[in-house]
Amino acid sequence: MSGHSHWAGIKHKKALTDAKRAGIFTKLGRAVTLAAREGGGNQEFNFKLKLTIDQARFANMPKENIERAIKRGTGELKDGAEIEEIIYEAYGPGNVAMLIKTATDNKNRTLGDLKNILTKTRGKIVSAGSVSFLFKQVGNINITVPEGVDPYELELKAIDAGAEDTIYSENILTIYTKSENLQKTKENLEKEGLKIRNAMIIYAPLQKITLNQQDKIDYGKMIKALDDQEDIQEVYDNL
User: Fold this and answer.
1) N or C: which end of the chain has fewer CB within 10 A?
2) Which pTM was predicted?
3) Of residues 80, 83, 55, the one with CA closest to residue 140
4) How far apart are CA 15 and CA 26, in angstroms?
5) Is the dihedral of CA 58, 44, 3, 193 positive or negative?
6) How far apart are CA 107 and CA 120, in angstroms?
7) Domains and CATH numbers, the chain
């Protein structure tokens, strides 16, 4: 059930340059704004906002940036065009199915940039419904496994907390839940004293494919270019 999520390049990256950090903060700020606009500015009553704020803090986004993003979402601060979330469907090299989530203040610019990136890396945008049926929404939680802790024991705790599936790799325990159970599972894990790296609703592939070596190289170039485009929030695929 594991989907492969490229969340704006913020996971596992250290020593970011100022330019890269600014780009990441732009992506995160837009995510916070969208969450606040959707469910209000109080994270105690808006679980999606709480998740995006947690992600922003994990990336060391300044508190004042987060607060400004919340105010943009609630309408308290008006300093630019309204941010809009759009999910595009696409195929990449080797017919990788892709859902590309964007947050933009200019959808024509974003679509043009996206088409340009995909065309240069052997991909193409397809019509709505062509790819989305290959995915389902699930809850996704990542926990760093402390040194000396048995990941198997953490997996058992995760199952007790409401996990449907777990994957352990490179000191990270990835937990999958039903989307409607994400909040409860996260809270149960925190009661066990476990530190959550991030938690979010993702699109997981119903079936996965593999690529040949050249397609992997081309797809890696595509992902790099997509990560560098500030309007693109997340990319989900069926690898």
Assistant:
1) N
2) 0.86
3) 55
4) 18
5) positive
6) 20
7) 15-74 (1.10.10.200), 83-239 (3.30.70.980)
